[in-house]
User: What shape does this take?
Amino acid sequence: MNGAELVLKVLQQQGVDTIFGYPGGAIMPIYDAIYASPVKHYLCRHEQGGAFSAIGYARSSGKVGVCLATSGPGATNLITSLADAMLDSVPLVAITGQVSQAVMGTDAFQEIDVLGLSLSVTKHSFMVRSADELAATLNEAFAIARSGRPGPVLVDIPKDVQLAAVSETEVSVQPRQRPINTSLAQSTKARQLIANANKPMAYIGGGVHMAGAMPQLQDFLAQCPMPSVTTLKGMGSVAKDNPYYLGMLGMHGTQAANIAVQQCDLLICLGARFDDRVTGNLQKFAPKAKVIHVDIDPAEINKVRFAQVSFLGDMQQILPAISSSTNCSDWLAHCSSLKQQHGWRYDHPGERIYAPLMLKQLSERMPDNSVVCCDVGQHQMWVAQHMRFSHPRNHLSSGGLGTMGFGLPAAIGAKLARPQDTVIAVSGDGSFMMNVQELGTIKRFRLPVKIVIIDNQRLGMVKQWQQLFFDERYSETDLSDNPDFVALAAAFAIPGHCITRKDEVEGALEAMFTWPGPYLLHVRIDEKDNVWPLVPPGAANEDMILESN
Amino acid sequence: MNHILTITTNNEASVVERLLQVTRYRGYQLAGLELTPLSDMAGLSITLTVSSDKPIHLLTSQLHKLYDVRDLQLVSADIAALRA
Ligand SMILES: Cc1ncc(C[n+]2csc(CCOP(=O)(O)OP(=O)(O)O)c2C)c(N)n1
Assistant: This one.
């Protein structure tokens, strides 16, 4: 057995059956081992796409995603996806081939200092210097990726290590793990704060479901009735029928969520991090609120907002420990009426398709456990505003990095992780073109992914900012020479259809869902449509710009 | 204001780069760096002096997360001055 075969063996021992990647010189021994391995490799058409597929796989399943790339350009192509996984705390193991140690440090062909490049975009990274360390290092990489606050880990393996002979002895390694100590010392104080609050509010991020604490969250909200809001990554955390759930907060949050958070007197932050897209002007964010902050990452506590009470560790233990009955019926009634008063309106005039309404129709029509993968821009915010999800694993959106090109490859990963579930990629005409080559992957593996392109012939989100904050100087945001998307799909043997009018939507969705294979629905909308509400930069969250302004 | 950190790390080739990368990215200036291998050569003893007006916990909490950091103690600048 050689090092490369050992890599595949360790992957199997880790329970990995699906990997994404692209071959090249320095990783050829591993690709040779893949040839005979039961681990199924999915060839992407760009390493960034492969790594996004691994992220989609990980985020939709909760498992660790695995991607492979060769040295030099293969590895540099991974960087954006690693950064995406870093900012969204996605468990990912990236394996890169490296030139042989004999030539390392000589600017050899396709040699680049991948370890150096990885420092700011991974949770940790390794260079494997000897085949004896290979199994232990890979096991350690998996343990790091999934432990604590999950994240991407890169393992760079020189070609000579891949080719070196190794003994077949079973490798069982106990990776160094920092135990998670959950301290409940402050729980009495937290319960008192909750019991005494007049206006408590739960602010829920992606950390809750990543901790496997969805049931504990529902219990918490049932035992301590209070309104709740979620971040982009927390969407789907609160049961759909919870009457006091106000939607997403922040820059494009709902009016009810933003107004109520600004008014609350106790903010219970669960697995979220006071990101600037959430808080708006930090100094003016939830100005009357005391804060209880629960997270697994100590560095998030008091990073941007001081917490009167904080808990570190396992959300599953912490939520029951801080449960306390609340005494806030007036506040609940107030929040319900905010929700009623500021509900979405879909009575958009004219024949043209109104994307929020179309997405609401899509949301109502899609099978219950569908996974929706977004790209970045206006359409991403419309998805967050107008679609409902039963679990955060069903809504994959590039949150922290906001990476255009995320949606299509993430959908490929999600479809492979959950073949029984419907997977829909909702993309913009700009974002779609950023990883359009992955249509080749869909074609090859006949993956029945549904693609919805919301086409405003613009880089819409940037155009909206130019309109509002740059004097309508539309610099480089016109995409009116887009390709014919239906014809483009046809080139990959993917059928499609283009619609422009509201009355075509229902029929088109029906056709898309009934078709058994992959399908592309090209939805043309008015380039003037914008995302509302919007909290302008520097403003407090209650100072939202609304459509009528 | 100067802050002095004494850090014990694994003796990995990239560990000093990682400390310096986090220090720079989080907005602290390097004011001193000393490094000695531990007697078993498996670890490093590092004294890192940084200066910034930001609270030092914003840096220490991030450095603590580095996988190769085994131990990290903050020696306040004043105490260090007294000892000198
Ligand atoms: C890789 C990358 N480059 C640039 C941006 C900046 N950016 C954010 S939204 C956006 C426009 C996206 O256009 P489109 O995909 O058509 O979506 P729309 O906003 O029109 O719905 C751009 C350029 C980004 N987020 N990611």
Observations:
- The mean pLDDT of chain B is 93.
